[in-house]
Specification:
There is one protein chain. The protein contains 6 helices and 32 strands. It has 598 residues and is an alpha/beta fold. The chain has a domain of 179 residues. The strands form 4 sheets. The protein has a 15-stranded mixed β-sheet that branches. Strand 16 and strand 17 form a beta hairpin.
């Protein structure tokens, strides 16, 4: 091999190694740069996602917890307006002079600031209300709409170099309407303490509860959302013994704990009055104007409203079951029961609601509401008549069909179909098994069953669509007693299910249990809905259990009350169900109009 040629090999190799090394270095640097850039893009994306999540939280707050905050701030002004007997169709509920203080109070609410950390990414945000005005075109006797302009600012941060901020602005509509009486899982004017009644272990409530006065606790009742009272104090037992109650004006931390969920007791809340008559419901069933809540229905009005059932209106309407209608066979009201009803049975068949009513003379009338055909078939005294229209919902004007069922006496027995297929199980489910407890209220039925005196429930009353398992459930039931009580009768089964809004507003009346103290333990009343009553009666008998330092139910029923979430803020109301004289924010609708990110 030529030595001179060999001498050229080493420099060539060295040059090649330098070039390869340089290329490798460039590749490594490029890769590191891309990695850094990719990592930077990733952290920025994380910060942006966090900012957008905080902004979504702000809108969620305004639509949910924000409604409660708005109600708290507006309540003093709404109460002042109610006490002044103002007319909401012509006068503003909230005076313009209150706008500034209202905005200041709302902007100081705890929920207005949103903050947290997730997977190393911090986020935070604020909601600020900037102005307020009223939509004067919305004025009506039922309520008004107020507009609040708002801004939100939300920030997400991965590190000092990766921060994103989202700013939005928009308007929030606040609809103020009359406060319906089905907005509490339990509302009572009198807690019954002067009659020896007390709230004890085994009584559970998962919705808003207010007792205006005379409230006594013993044992460990559970209130998921705390309690409110118009009184400045309640009675509590420090050792769970009902005979050892003490009057207190602060939360007890001993045996009695009516603060499950951490909400505690709110004293001196505005008093909520209950209506004392059912004239509105009687008029609605007849197809008359339900806005007249005080004038007694005359014999002539009653007879004329049932005109198609009589050739002349010269005397008293005989006892029986009537369906108001015109000469052309169109429904003009609800179901009208003159006198007592010995039995009112509800059942479901396909898309049909069936009422089987036995009047005081033991005559049976069957009424079938066909929601598909939009007809109502009445079978009475061997005669069948098909009418146009369906008995459901609230009539938009007098003379229209509605879901109002009214008895001028008492409804002695009310319920759905008998149970089938054995025991309910242990523990008894909160949501009834429809294969064991057939539904009483059809999917499209929106009805109110009212009596001038008592309404006695003798079997289960359940919905075809349970709102806890069926989103958008439509069926709604109301039960109202005029001068009497809504009662659970002795024929009702153990662990009875009642899905309805209940009202017994007459003096000293409430939701009672017949023979509650006969020594028979009957499980729980599984109420899904609401209860408004004048005086809370005992539904069971409690006995001190020293071993567990609480109270156990030994006779009658315990309370297992669940609030129907659709009832909150008037979201769903039985037909012609009463409201209070007070106004409250029933809904808020944030509407975003601007978005900026930086």
């Amino acid at each position: 091999m030529n030595n001179r040629t060999q001498g050229y090999v080493l420099p060539t190799v060295l040059i090649s190694l330098v070039v390869v090394s340089a290329m490798a270095a460039m590749t490594i640097n490029l890769t590191l740069s891309e990695t850094r850039q990719s990592g930077g893009n990733q952290t920025v994306a994380q910060a942006r996602a966090a900012a957008e999540a905080a902004q979504a939280d702000a809108l969620f707050y305004m639509s949910n917890q924000g409604l409660s905050d708005v109600n708290i701030v507006l309540a003093p002004f709404a109460n002042t307006f109610a006490n002044s007997s103002g007319d909401a169709s012509t006068q503003a509920i909230i005076p313009t002079s209150a706008y500034g203080p209202i905005l200041t109070s709302l902007n100081g609410a705890a929920g207005m600031a949103i903050a947290g950390t997730a997977n190393g990414v911090s986020y935070g945000g604020t909601v600020r209300y900037t102005s307020m005005n009223v939509d004067e075109k919305s004025f009506s006797s039922g309520g008004q709409t107020y507009i609040m302009n708002y801004t939100t600012e939300s920030k997400g941060q991965r590190n000092a170099a990766s921060t994103r901020t989202v700013t939005t602005n928009g308007q929030m509509q606040v609809k103020m309407g009359r406060q319906f009486l089905n907005q509490f899982v339990l509302l009572a004017n009198d807690g019954g303490s002067q009659q020896g009644n007390f709230f004890a272990t085994g009584m559970n409530y998962d919705g808003p509860v207010q007792i205006n006065q005379n409230w006594r606790f013993a044992g460990k009742p559970k209130f998921k959302y705390g309690v409110t009272t118009a009184s400045s104090n309640v009675q509590m037992s420090p050792d769970c013994n009902p005979s050892n109650n003490q009057t207190v004006s602060t939360q007890s931390n001993n045996c009695t704990a009516p603060d499950w969920g951490g909400f505690g007791i709110k004293y001196a809340a505005p008093k909520i009055d209950l209506p004392k008559n059912a004239a509105s419901q009687q008029r609605a069933a007849l197809g008359l104007d339900p806005k007249d809540t005080t004038t007694t229905v005359s014999i002539l009005q009653e007879c004329q409203a049932l005109g198609a059932n009589f050739s002349t209106c010269g005397g008293t309407v005989p006892n029986g079951v009537y369906v108001p209608q015109d000469a052309a066979g169109n429904l003009t009201g609800g179901i009208y029961i003159k006198g007592d009803a010995n039995n009112v049975a509800l059942s479901v068949s396909g898309n049909k609601q069936i009422y089987t009513i036995t009047d005081v003379n033991n005559a049976v009338t069957t009424i079938t509401v066909d929601y598909t055909a939009k007809t109502t078939t009445v079978v009475k005294g061997g005669v069948t008549k098909v009418l146009n229209g369906v008995l459901s919902g609230e009539a938009k004007s007098p003379g229209q069909p509605s879901g109002m069922i009214y008895s001028t006496g008492s409804i002695k027995s009310l319920g759905g179909p008998a149970r089938t297929n054995g025991t309910l199980g242990n523990p008894v489910p909160a949501v009834p098994d429809s294969t064991k407890i057939p539904p009483a209220v059809a999917t499209n039925s929106v009805i109110n069953i009212s009596a001038a005196s008592d309404v006695v429930v003798q079997s289960d009353l359940t919905y075809e669509q349970d709102p806890r398992t069926t989103p958008g459930a439509k069926n709604v039931l109301g039960l109202m007693a005029g001068s009497g009580s809504v009662r659970i009768g002795t024929g009702a089964p153990k662990d009875v299910y009642v899905q309805a809004a209940l009202l017994a507003g007459a003096k000293n009346q409430g939701f009672a249990v017949d023979s509650y103290n006969n020594g028979t333990l009957r499980g729980d009343i599984h109420l899904l809905g609401s209860l408004a009553e004048d005086t809370e009666p005992p539904r069971g008998v409690g006995q001190q259990n020293d071993a567990k330092d609480d109270i156990i139910v030994t006779s009658g029923y315990g309370d297992a009350f669940n609030f129907d979430p659709r009832f909150l803020n008037g979201g769903a109301v039985p037909p012609f169900f009463p409201s209070t004289s007070k106004f409250a924010a029933q809904a808020v609708w944030p509407s975003q109009q601007g978005w900026q990110e930086k």
